[in-house]
Amino acid sequence: MPRLNLRAVSKRFHDFQALDTVSLDIPDGAFLALLGPSGCGKTTLLRLIAGLEVPDQGEICLDEQVVAGKMAFVPPEKRRVGMVFQSYALWPTMSVRGNIEFGLKISRLTAKERAARIDEVLEVVGLRGLGDRRPHELSGGQRQRVALARSLATRPKLILLDEPLANLDAHLREAMLAEFRRIHSLTGATFVFVTHDQDEAMAVATHVAVMDRGRLQQVGTPEALYRQPASPFVARFIGRGRTLPVRVLKSESGRTRVMLGQQLLDMPGHAEVGHGWLCFHASDLQRVAEGGELKTELVGQVFQNGAFLSHCIPTEIDGDVVSLPLAERLLPGTPIELVLRSGWVIGDGHSSADAQVTRRAQTA
Ligand SMILES: Nc1ncnc2c1ncn2[C@@H]1O[C@H](COP(=O)(O)OP(=O)(O)OP(=O)(O)O)[C@@H](O)[C@H]1O
Ligand SMILES: [Mg+2]
């Protein structure tokens, strides 16, 4: 059964720590989206899994076989891992069939078996009949499908996709995403998908992993990352979330009592008594005429998705701008009182976030 485990994997380039003790368990058949700011180590992680880089420390296991570690290193061609790059990397002078066959040459298949395999993957990616075209005779989306077909042809256990949709326009990206989802369920392979686009990730992924500066911040379902972020970084990163500083008075059985400025609130979450963060999204905020828990002042509006996305700065606490859609256009400086319909409280220390990462990774 295809299964990927990373145990405390670290990678350094000269004096730069690109990956720092990353541990991750990816279950069979998962579709994992890997998210994080530019330079956080996503491509490096994929290259380590594929065998294109060697970890300095830690261990990588595929199907319970150690493929990289202190005592072992299995070369890329023996890992049954397919990698699809942003740039497609197709051979321009070869036909579609030729490009797909290229990856099969090192297999022990006969010419007839190779031809059958090529027909099979062209069918899967919806390119039947286009096998004799050259890459320049294809659209961007079709080229991306050829790149995917090429990696599917070797029947990999695991497919790594490094921003595969970055070169496509919004419309095509959406269509290709639906295709990836279809191909994922058809092949049963495990997919690891790097993207800058969160909406994209949330739409297709069964699991989402968030990285920051070489460290894994949290792994979980899209809903868990959205509703129960393990750290302020994840809270702010996922779904344009916001955090406000709170004082945690009590935390018991998944409920917390916190002070937001002078307001006492009961919210779901886990945190040690002391300083903490209330995490929420625009959809958790509601404007009220008076008696709001969060008093703010409007600083600006933009018309978006049929409403005025309104940016408001808290006036009675020291916190960042919060944003919510309002139906009307208002003047900057208008007082806006808000209630929080929901939220999630976390502690201040990184230790609790890390503990949660480990727990989630174990239960993923
Ligand atoms: N071969 C290398 N030599 C030196 N530094 C490297 C090398 N490869 C990557 N790095 C550095 O390691 C860090 C992580 O790079 P990586 O390519 O994994 O980031 P990324 O998360 O994929 O970013 P992006 O979203 O921009 O593609 C970066 O700071 C990068 O400059
Ligand atoms: Mg990258």
TrEMBL record:
Transmembrane segments: none annotated. Residues 4-238 form the ABC transporter domain. Gene3D superfamilies: P-loop containing nucleotide triphosphate hydrolases. One of its GO terms (molecular function) is ATP binding. It comes from the Bacteria. InterPro entries: AAA+_ATPase (IPR003593), ABC_SmlMolc_Importer (IPR050093), ABC_transporter-like_ATP-bd (IPR003439), ABC_transporter-like_CS (IPR017871), P-loop_NTPase (IPR027417). Keywords: ATP-binding, Nucleotide-binding, Transport. Belongs to the ABC transporter superfamily. This is ABC transporter ATP-binding protein. It comes from Rhizobium rhizophilum.
